[in-house]
Amino acid sequence: MSAVQVPVANGAVVADPPLEQGGEVLDRNHQQLERLPHALLGIPWREVRQLAREEVLAAAHAYMRAAGENPPAYPSARVVVTGHQPELYHPGVWIKNFAVRGLARRAGAVPLHLIVDYDAIKSLSLRWPEFHLERQQAHIASTPFDNGRLGVPWEEYTVHNESLFADLPSRLGLFWPFEPVLQEFWSLVVHQRKRTAQLGERFAGARRELERQWDGASLEVPVSHLCRTRAFALLVGSIVADLPRWHGLYNQIVQEYRRRHRLRSSQHPVPDLQRQDDWFELPFWGWRRGESGRGRLFARPCEGGIALRVGQDRWPTLPWHAGAVERFLDSWQGLEREGWKVRPRALTNTLFARLFFGDLFVHGLGGGKYDELTDELIRRVHGIEPPRFMVLTGTLRLPLPAFPAAHAERKRLASLLRDLQFNPQRHLPAKTGDSAIRAVVEEKQRVMGEQPTERHHRRQRWRLLRELTARLQPAVRLEQERVRELLAVQGQLDHVNAILQRRDYAFCLYPEASLRAFLEQVSGP
To answer: Which residue, among 522, 499, 448, 521, has the nearest Cα to 133 in the 3D structure?
Structure first.
C-alpha cells in the first residue's frame, strides 16, 4: 500500500514511485503484461490485451472526434492511464492529467484519461471561501449551478436550468486580490451546450480545451464507451464463468483488508458483494437507458444461460455454456444497444484498465489507498502478479490573505493555559509579598523533588501536589482569564486561516499563473 500523504507545503507534489522512475515502471509493467501466462476464456492474454488496446484507443479517437476535437496520434501501443469523475475537482486531482501527459511524452507512450461518467453526482454547487478579514470571519459558501437531483449517474444527467447554469460567475461576486480562471473556464463550459446537454460532458470538454491551450492534449474517453467493447464483455464473461469462486474471493479480499486496517464499517473501502438465495451480486452497476438511478446487478446461473436482474427488475437471460463464449459476448454487447446499461464498480474499473489495456495506472490519493484490493483480485483470481501502479497528488492553495502564525500562536497559548493550570508556581507575579503563597511554592518544590518508591507513598505525593497546586490557582486566575481571551481570538483566526488555506477548492477558482505553474511542473520537458 502506498505511503503517500497529502503534502503540506504549498505547490508541492508527491508521487510513489517518484515521477522520475515512472518510465522504468512503465517498461517493467509492459514487459510483464506482454508475457502473461494462461488465458482468459481460452484466449491468450496477449491477444486479449491487443484487442482491448485497439478498442479503447479507437473508442477514444471516436469520442473526441464526435466532440469536434482533433485527437492526437501516438505511434506507441503502450498506455499510461488515469481517470476521475467529470466534476470540478481541485488542482491536486487535475495534476494527474499533466503528470500522465509528461510521463507518456518522455516514455513515448499514449496518455489516456478515463472519464468516470457512471458515478453518481454528489454536488451541483461550487464551493468557495467567503471571508471578511476585518471582522475575522470566514466560511465556505456554496453557489448552485443547477437545480436537478443528486445521485444521478453523470452520463444520464442533463442541465435542468440553463439560465442558472450560465450566470454562475456573476452570482459568486468574488472580490479577491486576483482574477480566477473561472470566467474563462465557465465561458468554455457554456459554449459546450451547443454540443451537449450533459453536465459532465460540458465540464470535461471545457477542461480539455484549457489543457490544449496550456500543455497539449491527451486521449480521453468516458468509461461508458468502454463498456460497449468486446474486451469489456470478456471481463464480464470471465467473472460469470467462475461466478461462485469469484464472488467468494472478492468478499474474502475485502474482509481481510478491513481486518488488516482495522476498519469497522461494512461499507469501507467497498461493501461486500451480496448473495440472495442463488443470486450472486456482480461488481457492476446496472440501469435502463434514461433512468436516473443505478442499481446492483445480480446474476444467477440457469439452464443454458445466465439470468440477470437489477433489484426486482428482471433483465434478459444471456446464453452461457461451455463452448458458447462468442454467443455470450455477442449477447452481452447487445444489451447496451437495447438500452440495458452495465457499468463497473471502482475495483472492477481499475482492474480492467490495469490488466486489459493499460501499462501504468496513475491514481490519486483515494484510489491508491484501496487498489491494494485490486492487486489481490489480480493475484488470486487470475494467478498473475499485478503490475505496479503510481499514486500522485499535490497541494495548491488559493493566494488569499491570511493571519500570520495564527495556528502556531494558538498552540503556544493552549500550552501556556495548560501550564497555568498544572504549574501556577511558574507564573506568579515577579514580586509577590504574600508569605503564605511563597510557603506553598516552597512546599510544592520540596514535594516535587521527592521520588518515593512505594505505591501508597507515590499516591500520597500526587494528592499533595494536586492540593498545593489548587492553593496556588487563585494567584494566577487573572492571567488564566487573559490567556483564555487571547486563545479564543487566535482560535477564530486559526479557523479563518484553515478555511482560506484549504487545498480542495475547484481548480477554476485559482489564478491562471499559479495554477499553470503548479500543473506544468510535472509535464515537461
So the answer is: 499
Task: Pull the grid cell for residue 21.
Answer: 522512475
Q: What is the pTM of this model?
A: 0.89
Q: Where are the beta strands (DSSP E) in 133-278?
A: 137-144, 219-222, 275-276
| Domain ranges (residues) in the chain | 231-341, 406-500
* 8 exposure class (CB count in 10 Å sphere: 0-12, 13-18, 19+): exposed
Q: What's the pLDDT at 433?
A: 63
- Quick check: 45 pLDDT over 60? yes
Average pLDDT score over the chain: 93
- In our burial notation (b when 16+ CB lie closer than 10 A, e otherwise), range 131-153 reads beeeeeebeeeeeebbeeeeebb
**Cell of residue 148, nine digits:** 436537478
* 196/477 Cα distance (integer angstroms): 67
Question: How confident is the model over 204-233, as pLDDT tens digits?
Answer: 999 999 999 998 889 999 999 999 999 999
> Which residue reads 503484461 in cell numbers?
33
Residue 115: beta bridge partners? 84, 222
Asked if pLDDT for residue 283 goes beyond 80, the answer is: yes
